[in-house]
């Protein structure tokens, strides 16, 4: 009996001992961090190569599209005006708003919707280009166009008959020279004071330069102490065309038939060549008399006021006006003398 009880106690002790070991093992596993997840499988070299090719294709396609767009916009800007570009892209704008008619089939309506959606992006890009170009041209126009449509005030009613004598500054009235030992120095052309003072009796004299006013004003202040020059126009009053500043006499608020422009580079610096008298550019020659030689012709014009000075200047085209005028004056005097002599013979 005691042997049976002893064996039963031994079995119960063994069972309790195994249960305690199982519970203790479970608690230790719960205190440990969870096991790391299994590593992801590395992509194969073929898949990686396909992904790189797709990315490179997308990248080069974007670069090519941008390059093509910029090149097209540049060519359109060079070859066509803003109005011409708008006219040529009307069809593209219309295609972005294309819709099928009410009687169209469902398939046609879907096809029209797809086509309109595909054309929306190019149409929006064209609109953006036109807006940017319009804004840019307005900004450029502010620098390239004269500051006003009327560069000079109205003439006094009593001076409506007066001609306007427009003079260039550089290489016409003065010459600026630079040397290392003294820097810049400006020289006045021989006879310039006498030229201005004498012709101020017959003309409205203005200077019209493509230089900045900070250069023009100090020169004229010293060159013209008697204020024979009424107005001064500088670079802000010129018209910028093809990288060069031109004098535009249509903006002077004067009758173009009564404008004379005298310059050493007249034909190259003005938009109205029919109003030009080109004299020898002056570059420091102390024996030069070009301005003084021109006084007789200009005085004659100022006194007799031809109906259209452009026709008079056209008759001197290709000739030295100062010399040709003297020859014509001599010929005129000779004819007058002949007429007088002929009249005396008839009286006898």
Automatic annotation (TrEMBL):
Compositional bias (Pro residues): 32-42
Location of the protein in the cell: Mitochondrion inner membrane
PROSITE patterns found in the cross-reference section: FCP1
GO CC terms of this entry: TIM23 mitochondrial import inner membrane translocase complex
Keyword annotations of the record: Membrane, Mitochondrion, Mitochondrion inner membrane, Protein transport, Transit peptide, Translocation, Transmembrane, Transmembrane helix, Transport
Pfam family, one: NIF
Membrane association type: Single-pass membrane protein
Single Gene Ontology BP annotation: protein transport
Record region (Disordered): 24-48
Keyword S-adenosyl-L-methionine in record: no
FCP1 homology domain segment(s): 158-301
Keyword Transcription regulation: no
Similarity field: Belongs to the TIM50 family.
Functional summary from the UniProt entry: Essential component of the TIM23 complex, a complex that mediates the translocation of transit peptide-containing proteins across the mitochondrial inner membrane.
SUBUNIT field: Component of the TIM23 complex.
Protein name from the UniProt record: Mitochondrial import inner membrane translocase subunit TIM50
Source organism of the structure: Anisodus acutangulus
Source taxonomy: Eukaryota, Viridiplantae, Streptophyta, Embryophyta, Tracheophyta
